[in-house]
Design goal:
Largest sheet: 4 strands, antiparallel
Order of helices and strands: HEEEEEEE
Protein name: 16 kDa heat shock protein A
Family: Belongs to the small heat shock protein (HSP20) family.
Strand order of the largest sheet: 1-2-7-6
Domain SHSP: 30-142
Shape: elongated
Strand content: 25-35%
CATH topology of the domain at 36-79 and 92-132: Immunoglobulin-like
Organism: Metapseudomonas furukawaii
Keywords: Stress response
Helix content: under 10%
């Protein structure tokens, strides 16, 4: 049984929403992830957001953040440690590699990232350029001249 359906009727009265349509289609194709590592997406104001990723056991050099074509990718993997003085009797802190991707909305920029107390905080802000802000269009009070 296929779960494919057309989104064309939703976009019949819209212009320039091709990317929006692509987001829906990619969400339908997206497989459910493993849920590792857990993360939160927080809103701290009208234009301020934060992604908090539980990165217990990872250090800054183990993590990589990249933004490309509106997609924020966070990857983590433990580097080989040559500390032979430690023998684990139980190793419950997961240290497996991961890769998370977040599609950023238009005009969202990554402002800062920091690792503190096992949490990776990624601060995002919406910066709307002047040309993208709403503009009032004046209506000419004169009637058009009709030629006869």
């Amino acid at each position: 049984m296929s779960n494919a359906f057309s989104l064309a009727p939703l976009f019949r009265h819209s212009v320039g929403f091709d990317r929006f349509n692509d987001l829906f289609e990619s969400a339908l194709r997206n497989e459910t992830g493993s849920g590792y590592p857990p993360y939160n997406v927080e809103k701290h104001g009208d234009d301020q957001y934060r992604i908090v990723i539980a990165a217990a056991g990872f250090q800054e050099e183990d993590l990589e953040l990249q933004v490309e074509r509106g997609v924020l990718t966070v990857a983590g993997g433990k580097r080989e440690r040559t500390d032979e003085s430690v023998t684990y009797l139980h190793q419950g802190i997961a240290q497996r590699a991961f890769k998370l991707s977040f599609r950023l909305a238009d005009h969202i920029e990554v402002r800062a990232a920091g690792l503190q107390n096992g949490l990776l905080n990624i601060d995002l802000v919406r910066v709307v350029p002047e040309e993208a802000k709403a503009k009032r269009i004046p209506i000419n009070g004169q009637r058009p001249v009709l030629e006869s």
